[in-house]
Design brief:
Elements: H1 25-40, H2 59-69, H3 72-75, H4 86-102, H5 104-112, H6 123-138, H7 146-157, H8 169-185, H9 201-204, H10 208-224
Length: 229
């Protein structure tokens, strides 16, 4: 995915003339964390403990920017953050939300995929299908519908949580289960074309849906004990 690093003024219009973005990894990481923390809430809005030129980013400013311009510009700040961090977790939620929003019919087809052994003619294909069926039975649980997942993600990415990281646990768990169900029912491949707008190291890696499901499950565990920041 081709991305342009935006200055953090996109987060707080009042600081537009005073804040400049940076390609410095330390500054980019600081901006990513502070924007993510501001969107979710529950973090102190103190001045950053760094010499980097990062202005105060407030929850009110981020939520207002998202409401006025969409979450896309903010999300770009999170794109290179590790999966074990809050910005990295929000980036993964953003990718899932954008995929469902952009390709609802594709996602719905994959959601509805079943293992039908009656149409399989080769022994190898039958064996592979049985493996998928066994995995689905072992992991059987109600999978949330795509539209329900998107609605919950829309709320989170608009700053609609109750203002604390533990409040993320249900949506992280739900999204993890949703991706795992898609992978089990159809394929663990997420995005299969480097030219796709959602092509990213998260979506293009091997077994991307399962890998992301595992990361979101771990993020839920970290959020539950206050270690996701």
């Amino acid at each position: 995915m081709a991305r342009q690093f935006h200055r953090p003024a996109r987060l707080d219009p009042e600081a537009a003339e005073n804040i400049e973005g940076s390609d410095d990894p330390a500054v980019a990481s600081e901006l990513a964390h502070r924007a993510a923390q501001a969107l979710i809430g529950g973090f102190p809005e103190d001045a950053p403990e760094t010499d980097a030129p990062v202005e105060l980013i407030t929850r009110a400013g981020v939520v207002a920017a998202v409401a006025g311009h969409g979450v896309d510009a903010v999300a770009e700040l999170w794109a290179d953050s590790p999966a074990t961090t809050l910005p990295g977790t929000l980036w993964r939620l953003f990718l899932v939300r954008e995929w469902i929003r952009r390709d609802p019919e594709l996602v719905e087809r994959r959601y509805a995929t079943v293992v039908d052994l009656t149409t399989i003619t080769s022994e190898a294909a039958a064996a592979a299908a049985r493996v998928r069926l066994d995995a689905a039975l072992v992991d059987a649980r109600p999978a949330p519908a795509p539209e329900d997942v998107r609605a919950a993600l829309d709320d989170v990415l608009a700053g609609g949580l109750a203002g604390s990281v533990p409040a993320l646990v249900p949506i992280l768990t739900t999204t993890s289960g949703f991706l795992r169900a898609l992978a089990t029912g159809s394929s663990p491949v997420w995005i299969d074309d480097d030219a796709d707008e959602l092509a990213h190291r998260v979506t293009r890696r091997d077994s991307a849906l399962l890998a992301t499901a595992d990361e979101l499950a771990e993020a839920a565990r970290r959020a539950d004990v206050g270690l996701l920041d």
